[in-house]
Amino acid sequence: xxxIVFEKIQQLSLQEKPIPSLTDGDVLxxxxxxxxxxxxxxxxxxxxxxxxxPVVMGHELAGVIVDSRHPGVKVGERVTVNPMxxxxxxxxxxxxxxxxxxxxxxxxxxxDGGYAxxxxxxxxxxxxxxxxxxxDSVPHEELLFLEPLGCCLNAxxxxxxxxxxxxxxxxxxxxxxxxxxxxxxxxTYVVEPLPHRRTAAETLGADLTFDASxxxxxxxxxxxxxGVDTVISATTNNASAIAFAFEIARRGxxxxxxxxxxxxxxxxxxxxxFHYAGHKLMASWAFSRASLExxxxxxxxxxxxxxxLLTDQFPIAQGLTAFDNAxxxxxxxxxxxx
Length: 338
Description:
alpha/beta, Quinone Oxidoreductase, Chain A, domain 1, Rossmann fold, six-stranded parallel sheet, 12 helices
């Protein structure tokens, strides 16, 4: 089978690999679609370290069971995965905080993932509930968003809201957060440098969109009478994004630095100024089992609009071109198919 392998920093290759063999309790998933995640791009650049190359990347996937050695899984079932394979027994796992388990393995991070024609889901993952089955009524084009939508739902649950929110970035995460914020009744502003992504945010209900200019900062401060109640940074949290977030947040407002940050990036705070500004600082990442279940239910109920998100599809034979496309931020979501 064809597979896209992350070999080391700045090195990705298209390889021919054997179709994974199964042992007792494993299942084999035939890929339909797999989305390129910002974390994969960051790993390739060397900005994050939670990958163990060489590994087949890909964790935002949609597929079908084509072989099952597990008595609880049937061939033909439509599936995606919770890509964090944790022990299932520690205090963190028992409290639905699998992402803090000290024995975690990530699909597409540590073990081979979805940028391939087939992927093996090990018995342990099935037994700990990490195989997510959905009705056939959920199309693959929406199913691949189940995991990132779970991340967004987790962030919405953790973040402090009042009346207004500014979302920095109108990539797939920012656009899902836009829809969730509008469903929550919030006045929603989206800041995005790229015009085509601002258009997508407007299509999905953003009240106003802005570029990242100093004029936008002044405009936001003016129309919100001092700043928004909440900022969610759903973009790369580099120095400029961090500064922008603080500029548009009101005194006492909440700032959630959701997006990844380049390795070595620091947040420096004057504690006296921070004390009197009263900002609530936080970071949300990943998901819980509960937020993935909530995501699944939203997909089944057709609650969100994913059509403006999925813009670019490439066959796996053009996987390296697909990565270049995603890195260049063409369209919104780039996905790979067999």
